Amino acid sequence: MPPTWPLKDTTKTPLLNTDMILKKGEKVHLIHRRRFERDIRRHFAGVVEQYEHGMARLSGYVFVTDDLNKHVFVRREDRRTKIAAIGSGELIVNLLPPDVKIEKIRYELDRRRLVVTDGLWQMDIKEFGWG
Asked: Whose CB among 58, 74, 98, 117 lies 3.0–4.6 Å from 46's, allowing a Cys bridge?
């Protein structure tokens, strides 16, 4: 059945939900999805500076594995500002507790578990088995 005229005016209806899923000051841990088995594993831990329409401006640290066989994540020392498309499907986004110390985050292998920790808090992020 063809549409009836006049069509509903959608210009006044926002196309995107403007509710804030992330708020300024929240801490996040991002895992970039790998497209291929040999892709470098890239993670990011930081603080939300701004969030708007699915895009987040984050300040924090990048973690990468330099050797795919060792599963050791190395933090890049320089603090970075990153723009991340939160709803793109390319990122796994974990909200961190407010008291996590972003500057102290490191990765540890513990009995075939890969954990992200700041020394007091920890999160197991293994997908299957490591090692």
From this structure: 58
